[in-house]
Design goal:
alpha+beta, four-stranded mixed β-sheet, 12% strand, globular
Length: 205
């Protein structure tokens, strides 16, 4: 296994531990990351509420559940994130819901700014975008795929807006949050289920 990934796994935490961390940071008016600005503190508080809501409300269809339950190869999802990241607050609860269905899927979480060598090995268009999921085959230690920082539909929306306007505005970011709220994690579930099918095609026959 790549030494950088191995080090990341050794420094990682569970989803429950991460949720406890974000909750505590929100209560303490703090945030993860190198910059402890008021803006990032406010985002951490908002994300704690978002994740709490999604942890309770995300639903997985019976068809997707069947595929997830049939998946029988041990994999680890090493997620790189920070408490202030808006996309991560929507993506991570959906990933956890999937992993809760199948004990062959193990979620581990690291903070980006404490693991720069790791995120720099998995840049998105040259940037340290999060949440970034590194999918690892537990048997071989190989990276079988990556995911993030956004689900496929949100990525297409963002890319189209950037192509037309050059950068993302605060108004667009609000629209993106509304998209997440209306989609209810379903695009993430669809994306991940397809990835599981690519790794083990028999679950989708």
């Amino acid at each position: 296994m790549n030494e950088v990934i191995k080090s990341g796994l050794e420094n990682s935490m569970s989803y429950d531990a991460y949720r406890d961390l974000v909750k505590q940071l929100a209560e303490d008016n703090s945030t993860t990351g190198l910059a402890k600005t008021k803006v990032l503190v406010d985002y951490t508080k908002l994300n704690d509420r978002r994740m709490k809501r999604w942890d309770k409300t995300i639903k997985i269809s019976e068809e997707a559940q069947r595929k997830i339950l049939d998946f029988n190869q041990s994999i680890t999802w090493l997620i790189i994130t920070e408490s202030w990241c808006g996309d991560a607050a929507h993506v991570m609860p959906a990933l956890n819901k999937i992993a809760e269905l199948n004990n062959k899927i193990n979620i581990r979480i690291v903070l980006r700014d404490e693991n720069l060598e790791l995120i720099d090995a998995f840049l998105t268009n040259g940037g340290r975008a999060i949440a970034k999921v590194i999918m690892i085959d537990d048997e071989t230690g190989d990276v079988i795929n990556t995911y993030g920082p956004r689900p496929s539909e949100a990525t297409a929306i963002v890319n189209a807006y950037k192509a037309e306007h050059g950068k993302l505005t605060s108004e667009f970011k609000e629209d993106l949050q509304r998209w997440y709220n209306s989609n209810k994690g379903q695009n993430i579930i669809d994306d991940i289920t397809k990835m599981l099918c690519e790794f083990q095609p028999s679950i989708c026959l």
